[in-house]
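Posting this for the archive.
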Amino acid sequence: LNNKNLSERDSHSVSTMLHCIGDFERISDHAVNIMESAQELHEKKLTFSAQARNELQVLIAAVSRIVDTAYQIFDKQTEDVEPLEEIVDELSKELKRRHINRLRSGECTIEMGFILTDLLTSLERIADHCSNISVCITQVRENLYDTHSHLESLKSEPDDSYFNRLEELQKEYLQGSRTERNYAE
């Protein structure tokens, strides 16, 4: 490819593929980690509490959505996943906090905590790689390669679209979660 004259569009396509391939590979690695955690649960005949399963379902729904969006961004070069990535981080922190509370009250075990932590870490990292893909697409399209500046500019958009989207996602994924927390405490 170096010896060929590429159009700007082809150059962007090649650059995007080269930058994103590692993130796609890492997403699949984390998916394998999730599968291994599921196998461990199955082999040891362990199950999470109903509350933990419900909490994980919310997080998994958010991560599934961010993965779908990242693939759409890669394919169509539209949208951004950063607000959803923040939601995944918030959900993960909340699930860890709730697990600690269940551990303290004797509702859960340390062994389940290790598995839960592995799952949460993998899900969080999948979201991070989706964010990397989104940033890469935007950066290549704009001929820029400064990830931190891009993320900061998203959060300082004059029309507050980032924060409006973040607020919508918080209502969708965190509102019920906060209600459950207040009820449980």
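The longest helix spans residues 8-43. Residues 179-185 have pLDDT under 50 and may be disordered.
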